[in-house]
Write a structure and sequence with these properties.
The structure holds 2 protein chains of 2 kinds. Chain A is about 0% helix and about 55% strand. By secondary structure, chain A is mainly beta. In chain A, strands 2, 4, 5, 9, 10 and 11 form a 6-stranded mixed β-sheet that branches. Chain A has a 5-stranded antiparallel β-sheet with strand order 1-3-8-7-6, with no helix packed on it. Chain A is globular and about 40 Å long. By secondary structure, chain B is an all-beta fold. Chain B has no helices and 11 strands. In chain B, strand 9 and strand 10 form a beta hairpin. The chains are: A mainly beta, B mainly beta. The interface between A and B is medium-sized, with 21 and 18 residues.
């Protein structure tokens, strides 16, 4: 079966750095996406990785290792507005997204 | 631009009744999707359409039907609602099937 695993909840301090991990087992691989979802709102796109390595975009970076079936999202200089759920999703061989349940990130002042 | 819109925002529906959730995008995207999101679970794909005139079944299609008569609209119909269909429904679109997806604001549906 297809499976995406990520921690249910994480807590971090404003101004700090946090790493959210995602491991996956899917039928084929056509890229890994990270989305941000604030409570009661729609998911919004953060990053896309299809090759191994680190992609940096401002305060957010995403890493992929296809051989390990592993990705992480790194958030630097945390702000209170970063309090949200972070969703990991893998595009399978049918170009359908398989979604993790999301990691709820709580930022404390 | 509006992007992608959904209607209604929320709805309470009696079991056994039918309902159509509306979704419209103005980005001229080829692909559109319907997901449901339930607490503790990832988004689950109900139906999708890679281009106008074609549709396909996702992970949880039973009890739902869709149509794609044109590029912009992708309605989702529940023929006879059941309480297990209580969920938040998100419509999404992408330029092509392998691109990032843009999501509508969601419809919160409660079936009693």
């Amino acid at each position: 079966g297809q499976n995406i695993d990520q921690p249910t909840e994480m807590t971090a301090t404003e101004g700090a750095i946090v790493q959210i991990n995602c491991t996956y087992q899917t039928s084929g691989f056509n890229g890994l996406f990270w989305y941000q979802q604030h409570a009661g709102e729609a998911p919004t796109f953060l990053s896309y990785n299809v090759l191994d390595g680190l992609e940096e975009k401002g305060r957010f970076s995403s890493f992929l290792s296809r051989s390990k079936g592993y990705s992480y999202l790194l958030l630097k200089e945390l702000q209170m507005k970063d309090s949200a759920s972070y969703l990991c999703a893998v595009m399978d061989s049918n170009y359908q997204l398989i979604w993790g349940a999301g990691t709820k990130l709580i930022i404390k002042p | 631009t509006a992007g992608i819109t959904q209607a209604p925002t929320s709805q309470i529906l009696a079991a056994g009744r039918s309902m159509t959730l509306r979704c419209t995008q103005d980005m001229r995207h080829n692909a559109m999707y319907w997901y449901r999101q339930d607490l503790g679970l990832g988004l689950r794909l109900i139906h999708y359409s890679n281009t106008a005139g074609t549709t396909g079944k996702g992970e949880v299609p039973d009890g739902y039907s869709v149509s794609r008569a044109n590029t912009d609209d992708f309605p989702l119909t529940l023929a006879s609602a059941v309480p297990s269909q209580t969920s938040v429904y998100f419509c999404a679109s992408s330029d092509t099937a392998d691109n990032e997806q843009f999501f509508g604001p969601g419809t919160r549906l409660t079936v009693l």
